[in-house]
Structure formats: structure tokens, C-alpha cells
Amino acid sequence: MVSIQAFLALAVILFLMGVLGVISRRNVFTVFMSIELMLNAGNLAFISLSRFWHGMDGHVMAIIIMAVAAAEAALALAVVILMYRNKGSLDIDFFRVLRG
Amino acid sequence: MELLSLVLFLGFAGLAVAGAAGLILFRHPLNSALSFIVTLIALAGLYAMLSASLLFAVQIIVYAGAIMSLIVFIIMFLNVRDADLPAEPTRWYFLIGGAVVLTPVGAFLLKVVRQLPGADMSVPLPEGFGGIHAVGQLLFIKWVFPFEIVSVLLVVALLGAVMLAKRKV
């Protein structure tokens, strides 16, 4: 069997690639999907550790994270649609008008 | 058996990393989204290898199915053309600089991961581990309060999305 460390190492790599996507891209969709990639890396770590401890709390946590990701997708995409209608741009820099 | 699981893991991990690389490298968001779906399905395979059979189905149905189809639908709905995309002249500098900054972080985290005690994977799992019955019982008994909070969060998010995106009457 493949050890748990390999799964956790993959989770670390995917999380760092998500961070890289957030800091290097300016397209709002790509930044958004990079955040989803980070959430997925967290899910993978939860499920690997769940397998490690022989308990299923990590699975429940992963389901809750998926629900939060769905809520985030619905809200963030609504904001993107509004922004694109009003400003006609997908540049993440335009989103600074949301600052309070 | 040993070899098969190793081959499966390497295949899924390679697909996941390749999809993530496509996500952060493609210029058009539609290409990025389709590449990200590859990552999500490869992750579903990894969940199956970790005997999380419910999460395997939920990952494919909810994540790769519902959330990503919402994102792809919005990208197509906005009809994004190449001219609408923000110019990213500094993209490669940030990519290389970010990789340089994140490499020590990654090396540190990988070192931490390597020092974890190895699980004895040959110990048999409890009956029904990761199935819908066991996870559902845990979710509705021990985790019932977070579950209700998440349901309220979903309702609020959907109402907010409708309020934001509808045209002014």
C-alpha cells in the first residue's frame, strides 16, 4: 500500500500550487479556481488523516468544506457577474472598489 | 496488489498535479476550468484509494459536477474573449518569484510530513468505513450542529447571490 505520507505530500504540493496561482494571476476566474484548489488540498489532507486514524470525522469535515465551497462559488460568481456588467473587466485589480 | 496501488497512486497524483499546473498556466479561464476538472476527478480517484467511498461519489457529483459546471456556465455566459482578458505582463515574474519564495515553505512542510509515523496500512478498517451509513450517522449525531450551521450558510449565500445578480426592477 502507498503510505499516508505520500498522500499528505501531494496535498502540500497542490496547496502550494494554489497559492502560486493566487499570487501570480490577475484573471479573477483563475484566482477563484486556485482558491478552490487550496480547499481541495485541505480535503485531501483531511481524508488521508482520517484513513490514518481509522475515524471518519475527517470525511464529515470534507463534506462541510464542500458545502462551504459551493456557497462561496455561488456568491463569488454573482459578484463577478455584477462587476463584469458594470466595469467590463475581469482584472482582479478592479475588485478593489469592493473595499469598504 | 502492492504494485497496482503504487501505479494507481502515481497516475492519479500525476494527473492532479498536471491539472493544477494547467489551471495556473493557461491564459483563458475556460481552459483553466477544464484543466481543473481533471484535477478534481483525479482527487476523486485518490479518495477511493483511501477507502472514502462516499467522498468519492460526492467529489464527482458535487465538485466536478455541480460547482465546476456552475463556473464553466458563468465563463460561457459572460462570453469572455481573448481581448477581454486582463493583460498579464508580469505573470512569469510572479510565477518564478512565487516559486522561489514557496520552495522553502514546501520543503519544510514535506519534511514535517515525512517525519510523521507511518500507519500500518495492513490493519483492517472497521466495517463500512467511509460508506454512506457510517459517515451519515457521524454527521447527524456528533456533527449535527455544524451541519445545521452549514445549511443556514447555504441558504444565505443563495439568497445573496440572487439579490446581487438580479436586474434592478
Structural notes for this entry:
- The complex is a heterodimer of chains A (100) and B (169).
- Chain A is mostly helical and 100 residues long.
- Chain A contains three helices and no strands.
- In chain A, helix 1 packs antiparallel against helix 2 and helix 2 packs antiparallel against helix 3 (57-87).
- Chain B has 169 residues and is mainly α.
- Chain B is built from six helices and no strands.
- Chain B has helices spanning 2-25, 29-49, 53-77, 91-114, 132-141, 144-165.
- In chain B, helix 1 runs antiparallel to helix 2 (29-49) and helix 2 packs antiparallel against helix 3 (53-77).
- The longest helix of chain B is centred in the middle third of the chain and has 25 residues, at 53-77.
- Chain B is globular and about 55 Å long.
- The model of chain B has no long low-confidence stretch (mean pLDDT 90).
- Chains A and B meet through helix 1, helix 2 and helix 3 of A and helix 1, helix 2, helix 3, helix 4 and helix 5 of B.
Largest interchain contact: A-B, 70 and 86 residues
User: What would you call the quaternary organization?
Assistant: heterodimer
Average pLDDT value of chain A? 91
Structural class of chain A, by secondary structure, is: mainly alpha
Low-confidence regions of chain A: none
Major sheet size, sense and barrel closure of chain A: none
The number of strands of chain A is 0
Q: Helical stretch count of chain A? A: 3
Radius of gyration of chain B: 21 Å
H/E series of chain B: HHHHHH
